């Protein structure tokens, strides 16, 4: 039997939503072991002077707890 936990993180990228999600998972993997999945809960952009400057994602990350 395994038990999992879900935690929420936010990540940004100047390139794309996909890159923001990748950056978030890459960073979370440095701290969390056993990441199984991530759900993109929300996406939005940061705008300055009428131009998109950053893409932001809010992720729910699921990871299995150690025994």
Distance between the termini: 10 Å
**Helicity range:** 10-25%
| Mean pLDDT across every amino acid position | 96
Q: What order do the helices and strands follow?
A: EHEE
Report on this model:
The protein is of the alpha+beta class and 67 residues long. Helices cover 22% and strands 57% of the residues. It has one helix spanning 17-31, and strands at residues 4-13, 35-48, 51-64. It has a 3-stranded antiparallel β-sheet, with helices on one face. The chain starts with a strand and ends with a strand.
SSE layout and pairing:
Layout (H helix, E strand, L loop, with lengths): L3 E10 L3 H15 L3 E14 L2 E14 L3
Antiparallel strand pairs: 1-3, 2-3
How would you concisely characterize the structure shown here?
This protein is α+β, with helices and mostly antiparallel strands. Helix content is 22%, strand content 57%. The protein has one helix spanning 17-31; strands spanning 4-13, 35-48, 51-64.
């Amino acid at each position: 039997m395994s038990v999992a936990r879900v935690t929420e993180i936010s990540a940004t990228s100047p390139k794309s939503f996909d890159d923001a999600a990748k950056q978030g998972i890459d960073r979370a993997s440095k701290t969390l072991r056993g990441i199984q999945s991530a759900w993109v809960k929300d996406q939005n952009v940061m705008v300055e002077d009428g131009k998109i400057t950053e893409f932001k994602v809010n992720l729910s990350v699921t990871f299995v707890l150690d025994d």
